[in-house]
Structures are given as structure tokens and as C-alpha cells.
Write a structure and sequence with these properties.
The complex is a heterodimer of chains A (367) and B (300). Chain A has 367 residues and is of the alpha+beta class. Chain A has eight helices and 20 strands. In chain A, helix 3 packs across helix 4. The two termini of chain A are 37 Å apart. Chain B has one domain: MetI-like fold (Orthogonal Bundle). In chain B, 79% of the residues lie in helices and 1% in strands. In chain B, strand 1 (56-57) and strand 2 (63-64) form a beta hairpin. Chain B is flat and about 65 Å long. The chains are: A alpha+beta (367), B mainly alpha (300). Chains A and B meet through strand 6 and helix 2 of A and helix 8 and helix 9 of B. The complex binds adenosine-5'-triphosphate (ATP) and magnesium ion.
Chain lengths: 367, 300
Amino acid sequence: MKNGIAVDLRNVVKRFAEVYAVDHVSMQIRDGEFFSMLGPSGCGKTTTLRMIAGFEFPTAGEIALHGKLVGTTPPFRRNVNTVFQSYALFPHMTVAENVAFGLQMKKTPQAEIARRVEEALDLVRLGGFSGRRPRQLSGGQQQRVALARALVNHPEVLLLDEPLGALDLKLRKEMQLELKSLQERVGITFIYVTHDQEEALTMSDRIAVMNAGKVLQVGTPTEIYERPVCRFVADFIGETNFIEGLAGGVEPDGVATITTDDGLTFRAQTTRPVTPGAKVTLSIRPEKAFLAVQSPPPGTPNCFPVTVARVAYIGSDTRIDVRLGQGRLFDLWEQNSRSTLDRDAYWQPGETGFLWWPAENALVLTE
Amino acid sequence: MALETLTSEPRESRVAALLRRSERFRLGLLLFPGLFWLLLFFALPLVVVVLYSFATPGPTGRVEWHFTLANYGTLFTESLYVNAYLRSIWAGVLTTLICLLAGYPLALYIVRRPPRWRTVLLFLILIPFWTNFLVRTYAWMIILSNNGIINSIIQALGLPRVALYPSEGAVLIGLIYGNLPFMVLPIFASLDRFDFTLLEAAADLGADQTRAFLRVMLPLTMPGIAAGSVLVFIPTVGQFVVSDLLGGAKVDYLGNLLQRLFTRSNPPNWPLGSAMAIVFMAVLTVAILLYFRITTEQDR
Ligand SMILES: Nc1ncnc2c1ncn2[C@@H]1O[C@H](COP(=O)(O)OP(=O)(O)OP(=O)(O)O)[C@@H](O)[C@H]1O
Ligand SMILES: [Mg+2]
């Protein structure tokens, strides 16, 4: 089954009364990958996950697990397990009883249950906790029990709905790494829901960015960050500067000329066909633009004399807002790669300089 | 140095002892009203009843203070009493079971409504309590009697009348009717605390609805079931009004016999009545102990 498709969503729609919680979603999740769904609150992540688990059935469209349509198969007949955001551990059972539950339901022999429960608890480093009750555990430990309880069943797919949401930042970072390495060890397909972009970028093989029930883009973290397909994705993942203008001609290498209302001309990379004269948006990430003291050599693209408006020193970087054209603030980050206390080494408000970036660092967005 | 430590130590403990003593004194002062109340209204009557149960009934109904076990002997040998016990306990068990089977789904239904509807439905369950219990029981007489509502309908359909009242069945209906809210409310409370995602978790792990209910929902709502059962069982076993009114005073339940022995029979037989009350209490104690076992098992 390796490199097959674990979950195939085909034009899936879920409507609650008037609300389209999931609006014609099509995507394929590959076997063994760490797949994240990322998007703002209410965009339909949980609903999508619940349809894969079988807690909700699609209003329209189809879901296939390893090629088999699941339609209205109830959750207890799907070989898919969920790690709930609230963990949903059974409070009247011990840790071991919680983990054994799924195997008991499948009528696994006692001896095998005992062995697999122990294995699963060792896997999440909870070896000595089998006799405890869930409420005698910390948040992070409960989280790991929930993980063991799901993994012990060797599911085809593991669904995780913001599993780290309830943990504090430090524990969260720790668990991110732990989850990722666990996933690599067990080789089970993980579908992970989060609204934390950093979490999605660090952990995922691929990410689906959702908004208002729709999937806007599916891609690797690099693809999502470096080549967002629309304004929403560019804005939602990381930070960026948007500049609106009209497209001019596109050269064979994909570089287009864009002019703004206030007479600035830019050159930027296109990733899709652009009709000359169309309204487009430029996206330039703040770390991909530079501020020079001296004028760069003539012919440097996207080079503009600017005045520094604001400076924020944040340790690793200095974040600088410069005035570009008419009433436009452009944000750029300069890495503090040199250690010094010298004031002159840092930009000060009111200073002038030359803002520039290579054409391929800016992206033309048509939507 | 050595002397100092020797002298200072006892002084300290003397102060501590004084403090301790005053603490105990204050504790006693605080406990006194409660203890007094318990002694006066619980222990004292109990002692009196126990003493009476070993006394001999006199010919005019006056109690003679000769120790005897004959009262208890009568209870366990005369079929009138044995049957009354069995009938009352049976009625209690049956009422509790039926209330449970009807009350659990009802409570579950109410819990799953949106908040606004929950309030309305709970309110509806409580409304009958606004009317006097006797009046409500009389209402059942009217519904069940030979010329009552049910028989009128049956007759209108051209079918022969059914003797519904007075009967043991009518008593059971009255008991279930009067006690159902006491079952529904505690179960509602425990279902209200129940986290329904746990059912999803169970389904996710391969449990069908029946097993999810038996393994997850039932054990977690057991305290409500136990509390409801105790609240229904105890008054049901001891009642005499419903069986008097709906049973037509033809069959004897525990409560009816007790009432008769103490007040109606000529001469009254207080010692036998007391013995009966003591045995009754023993039965209930067993029920309560069972309840505690179920609820404490949860907290383990
Ligand atoms: N059972 C339901 N009944 C009605 N509307 C629902 C139901 N479940 C979800 N919705 C609606 O569907 C939309 C998507 O909800 P969903 O829970 O999938 O969002 P989400 O992306 O998981 O958000 P969050 O990040 O806040 O968890 C929301 O507008 C929500 O109000
Ligand atoms: Mg959600």
C-alpha cells in the first residue's frame, strides 16, 4: 500500500442548514504522509476530519479510504482512529484499560492485548503509568495516552484535531517534535488539524490551506510558503507585503512588469498565466527585500529610494518599515548577523536608503 | 544550654496542650447542636422502637415490659406479614425498575435538547408536584375506575369493560407515576455532567452503540441511577397511601399493616409494629449500603 492514496476526498460537501461547512473539497492524502489541514477558525477543518472518521456524513461527494468508498459507514466500522482535542479519555478506566479498549472491541486475545498495550505505552513513554486514572495525569501525559489509545489499533489513518491546543507553549514545541518522530517511526498516515501555521510548517510533509470551507492550496511547506497560489494563502502563512497594480508584458522566463497607480514599476515572478492589463497583486516577503545605504548598481530591478519610518529591534532581526511611493508602508526584515552595540550599525527612523529585491523574490498573484 | 532546652520544652508543650484542649472544646461546642438533634430525633425514637419490638403486647393495647422475641417470630412465620414484606419489596423493585427503564431514556432525551427546551421539559416534569399527592392519586382512581376514562374509551370502541381498579396493577401504576420524577432528576443530573464526546471516542475505537453505552455511558452515569433508585425504592416499599386508594385496601402492603398495627387495629399492637419497622429498616439499610458501594466504586 505504500505510496498509494490513503484518503481520497472527491468533491465533498457538508452543509449544516444554511452553512456550507465544507464546500466542494477534493484532495488526496498519500499513504504514510504527515498531512496537515491549516486554516482560520470555522473554515471547516474539524468537519472534514469528522467526515473522514465517520462522525458526520457528506451532504454530497465521496470519501474513499484506501480506494474503498466509505459513504455512510459508521465510525466503529472504519479502520481510522481519532485523537480528540479534549483527549476524550474514559475517566472511569485506567490508562491501560483506556488503551486496551479498541482491541477489546475487536475481540483481540487477552495475551495479545496485554502485549500491545504495553508496547503502545512504551512508544509514548508512559511505561509506568498503566494503573493510573486519566485525571491523575498532566495534560501532556493525557495527550500521550490518547495517542497510544489510537495507535495501538494500527489504524489506516490517524486523525488529530488540534491535539496540542490545550498545552502550554513549551510542552507544545516538545510534543510537536515527539509527534513527528513518532509518525516517522510507526509510518501511519497522520491527518493533522491546526490553526498554528508554524506547527503545520515544522511537522508536515504536505499542507492543505483552507478558508471558508474550501481548500485553496495543497503543497509542501516550501511550496505553500514560497509559491502561494492566492492572496489568502500568502497572507495566512507567514508575513508579506502586498502591492496592487496592473500587469504589463510577461517575458519568456515568467517575469512580468507591474505598474501601480502612483507610477512605480516592479518586476516580479509569475507562476500562472497573466493577461496583460489585468489587475494583480504583488507579494514580497519582508525577509526577501533589502535596504542598502548606497545606491545599488544601475539596472538593479525593483530599486527605490526610501525613507525609514519605523524600526523594531527584535533580537534575531530588525524589522524596518519604509515609505514606498504614496502612503505605502513596506515592511522588511534585516537579520542581525553581526554582534555589535554600535548605533550606526542599525537603521534609525528618518534615514534614507535604497529598497530593492531581485525579481524572483516577488510573486505575482492573480486571485 | 542543656538546662535551657530542658525547661523550655515542657513549657512549649504545655501551651500546645492548652491550645489543643481549647480546640477540642470549641469543636465540641460546634458539634453540640447537631449531635443533640441527632440524639433527640433519630437515636432516641430508634431506641424506643427497638425496646418496643422486644416488649409484649397487652390485652388492651398497652405495652407490657416482658422481654420476648415472639414479635419477630410472628413476622417471619405468619403468612400475612411475610407476604406483605414480599409484596412491598416486589412492588418496590418493580417500580424502581420500570421507573429506571422509562426514566433513563427520558432523561437522555431531555439532556440532548437545546438549553431552552431542556428548561421547559424539566419544568413539565416538576409541574405535577404542584398538586397535592393525594389529589393526584384520586385522579388515577377516576381514570382507572369502572366508569373511568379508560373504560369509557374501551366501551365506546364496543369492547367489554376491564376491571382496572382496584387492583395491584393500579397500585403499580400509581407508584410509577408518583415516583418517576425522582428517578429522572438524578439521572438527568449525571447525564448533564457526562461528556458526550466519550461516546464518539468509543465509536471511534470500534464500539457499536450498545457497547459504547454499556462500557462508557452506563458506568459513568451509575451514580445518578443509584441515587434515583434509592429515592424511588425506599418510599415505595414503605408507602401505604397509594395501595390504600388504588389497591382498594384489599391487599396488604407493609405500610398498610404498619399503619393498622399502630392506629387502626383494636387493640393496637405497638410491639409487633415496632418489630416490623425494625425489619423494614434492615431491608432498607441493605439497599443503602448497595447504593454506597456503587457510588464509591466510581471514585476509586
Ligand atoms: N453540528 C453543526 N451544526 C451547525 N453548524 C456547524 C456544525 N459543526 C460545524 N458547523 C459550522 O461549520 C463551520 C465549520 O466548522 P468547523 O468546526 O469544521 O471549523 P474548524 O475549521 O474546525 O474551526 P476551529 O479552528 O474553530 O476548530 C462553522 O461555521 C461552524 O459553525
Ligand atoms: Mg475545529
